[in-house]
Amino acid sequence: MDRSLAAVQLKGITKRFPGLVANDSINFELKKGEIHALLGENGAGKSTLMNILFGLYQPDEGEIWVNGEKTVIEGAAKAIELGIGMVHQHFKLVQPFTVAENIVLGNEPVKGLKIDYKLANEKVRSISERYGLKVDPQIRIKDITVGMQQRVEILKTLYRGAEIVIFDEPTAVLTVQEIEELIEIIRNLAAEGKSIIIITHKLKEVMALADTVTVIRRGKVVKTVTTDETSEQQLAELMVGRDVSFQVEKTKREPGEVVLSVDALQMKGEQGKNALNGVTFNVRAGEIVGIAGVDGNGQSELIYGITGMRSVSGGSVKLNGQDLTNRTPREVSVAGVGHIPEDRHKHGLVLDFTLSENMILGSYFEPEFGRSGLIDYKAMDRLAVKLVDEFDVRTSGIHTNARALSGGNQQKAIIARELHKEPDLLIAVQPTRGLDIGAIEYVHKRLVQARNEGKAILLVSFELDELYALSDRIAVMYEGRLMGEVDAENRDDQQLGLMMAGNKSAAAVPRERG
Amino acid sequence: MKTLNKVFNKSSILVPGVAILLGLIVGAIAMLAGGYNPIVAYYSLLDKLFSSPYNIGEAIRAITPLIFTGIAVAFAFRTGLFNIGVEGQFIMGMTGATLVGVTLDLPWYIHAPLAVITGAVFGGVWAAIAGFLKATRGVNEVISSIMLNWIALFLSNYIVATFLVEKGQQKSRPVHESALLTIDWLIELMDKARMHWGTFIAIICIVVFYVLLWRTKQGYELRAVGHNPDAALYAGMNVNRTIVKSMFISGLFAGLGGVFEILGVFGYQTVMAASWGYGFDGIAVALLGGNTPVGVLLGAILFGGLNYGSTGMSFGAGVPSEVVRIVIGSVIFFVASHGLVKWFLKPFLNKRASKRKEAV
Amino acid sequence: MKKTFSFMLVLIVALTLVLSACGANKENEGGAGTNKDEDAVVSDETGKDFKIGMVTDVGGVNDKSFNQSAWEGLKKVTAETSAQTKYLESKGDADMEPNLNSFVKEGYSLTWGIGFLFFDAMTKVAAENPDAKLAVIDSVVEAPNVASVTFAEHEGSYLVGVVAGLMTKTNKIGFVGGMDIPVIKRFEAGFKAGVAAVKPDAKVEVNYTGDFGKPDLGKLAAATMYDAGVDIIFHAAGGTGNGVFNEAIDRKKNGADIWVIGVDKDQSLEFGDEVTLTSMMKGVETAVHKVTKDLIAGNWAGGTVQELGLKDNAVGLPETSSKNVPADILAKVEEYKQKIVSGEIKVPTE
After folding, report:
1. pTM for the full model?
2. A391: how many CB neighbours lie within 10 A of its CB?
3. ipTM value greater than 0.90
């Protein structure tokens, strides 16, 4: 295999949308058999470029060369014909169909007028064995994990004869273990001679996986380098356009009084299973307690239980000694709890409200926003202006709908709102999900700052790096229980991993420290 | 994209205007196909609407209930609910007003307001039933409120036929003078057209609709629940109570519509074979008006005006009512299909926009 | 999601409007609104300066019932005298008053309101326009400028009751009414009395569907009765009665020995004489024709109430009845008719 040959060349690609140049004369070259990362912040133009390559958009200017030949890709069908496959971020699978049915969909082997399922299963099995993508062809999509579904998407492209595979943010939905497996799979594909493009904004994965990186910022290529000759730090700076500090400044600090104490909390879940099985822990003033664990082990329910969004069936929640068990969300909020929710679109914001209106979402009933039952819009706007300024929320105005803001700025707005309440306890769930580096850095800084000001902070995250960087203590959750606590500074990765997988023997660590 | 939007916003008068025009053109084609003269027909339509004080007054009378039902639907819609039961709430409003108007004998300054409030509350409570079922049992308000329409129809027929009936008739005894809300001087002025205070209350309700939703804390809650109940829960609002409240208020508006048909127009209530359809027309009005206060007012004027004026087309140009319905249908179709009209206007608007740019 | 939904909804509303128009009966297409009747009747042109208006109730002019009959009466007037005639359909109760006013304010010579629902609107318009001439069917408006026409439905119903009583084999007879209102009660009372006169042991089952425009309800009511062994149903339910006929036609095809007695018009012409035993005709057409022609001839009947009954031949059985009703029974019917006209029998009204 001649590695110097280019599988794809994009020359001077420009794509304009009204009021925006998404791609500005981009040059990009993918060599055969290489893993090439396309790195950039949200909205930098990565996805636009790949959609052009996959035939979903037509470029305004520029040329596309595939396998040394100039070509025009007028649609996805043409792209597939040229051997280009794409694994989308949001899977396009038919849930009630089996794996094999999904894979052969649109290109079914037929016997007479009927689909030859036997042959389909056979074909799928042989491809999955060849690339080490273990998956049962006869199981239904709705019964398998997200990681497995992604494998099906990959198999689908391979079945259609893809030589060039584009992955759009492939790790966004995966657990730590699944990410490792995916990295293995992608390496295998490259070894088999496939050329791979990965769209991502995660530096760690780029360094671990890619041969070459092309960094895009605001529609332009900043630089193309090989991973050998660069570093995470340099890539981050190229991507963001300025210095970035990963390490949050965090001085050691002696925590104060117990602010939140949760005792033997229980909550009923679906199908008779308990979502929470007696969770006990506390958070003190001036410390960040992290809750680690794989998604779906009761973290969300724990937070719902504490904040009163769902009723608990046993145990107690106390804030500064005051009993808050099964109080309404408003009572909990007024008692001094700020909450940065897990899903900012579902819970954190009313997207069709203006930014200004969103700023009083949890406090509109306070007399400062009007005493007579009417809303004092002036007071509301004053607060919004102040918070937008203080927390550097980038918006075209406080009367812009929250929907129009970028994810990072939406999150900043929520943090601004929740911190403005001057809560004794701040709960932050996945506070940096979907944000790019610049925004993550900012959120982290704010959380640590709040801790330093003496607030108690409860942080739930699926990103171990984030927990390590911010927490003073880390508790691990598994199937509605806390498996134990570890000191963030003297942690043992191995032990933490085992606890997250539900290994009890690893959890022989003291529980109570407060 | 942004620039395009701007152009369209500036032509927010142009688009509905062209839509009405397109609808009239399609209607004209239908009339030509049937062998009727569309010019005479449209002239008769306008003539019917504006020719005499009586007709202007009666057109306003026809428009008034649509304002109420339009607001009722739009209000619920703004709070995330689809109140398809406005028809039933309207009927309950009528029944409440008739009950008080017929059975009680009070001085006018108590009687009329009491009849109005009773009717409105009847409508509100009727809607709140659907809201309550949704809040506590998760029953889809579309289904329950449709069912409640039928119950309202038969229940009020039963009430009228059993307790209020005028002997030998299939309607209630007349409402006492003291409860009537007709405006006698205006009736004289408008050449005996049935003018009543409901029209003014309807305009006030438009203002209430706006102030309540966009200026009060209550409205802030209602809208938050409407847009995003999860976020409302997170923000400490009582989502279930808000749903019931919102349906109640929507029903109040609908009930008021019914109240004024009794106290302002008829002065009695008949045993109805079928409901009158103001509630369903209210859905069309609300959607035509984009669920905005002014939009609902304009939608009601368009819908009610066309409906009333269409008689003129039959009268003046001999167009049968079936063809008249095609004309009304096409106008509504085009007004509702903003997208279609914009697409139709696109080349024109683009040209204008680029010209403006050149001029700059 | 929501936007698409609401858009679809408006679309449906608009389409319903259009489709309901398309689906509507087009019988009257040629002469809708104005009358251009081309019957080969020689006109004497006595009425060419007269303009006659007519307002229907919500049933519309093609209701195959009294609105249509009334319009046919006016068409006949046009053919005979060249009078100009025109109708307006009411879309709801609130429309009746402005519709009447449309004619009155245009200076029409006579304006008809068809149906008992016109009572209030007619009373008001008559009082407000003392110079206008008005006429109403099925209702009594006491005003000097209104001619009221009502019918002795109970008398005609008595006669079809006699037919039903003499022809039933199962001794079970049905009555399907529209709404439970005095007019329809008169049908029921007369019918029951007629049955009882000839077959005292026969049972009459009564069902009020609560609606004049719901054929599905009529079909359901008929099915229930036929299942219970009823073999003859008399309906006084307007459009709802069409369902009764439908059910009967279905059953007749399967060999069932059942009948329907029609109402208002000779319904055997509409539904065929396989199922239509006879009909209780109501002479709306005759009445409208007579009052209008009298006006043209200079005999305005304003302020009078005419109750038209058997003696005026304004109610009764159509001639087509002889097809299904044996001559001896028809003779019996004629016998009872004479007794009613002579006053020997007094038919109850409720």
Report:
1. 0.78
2. 19
3. no
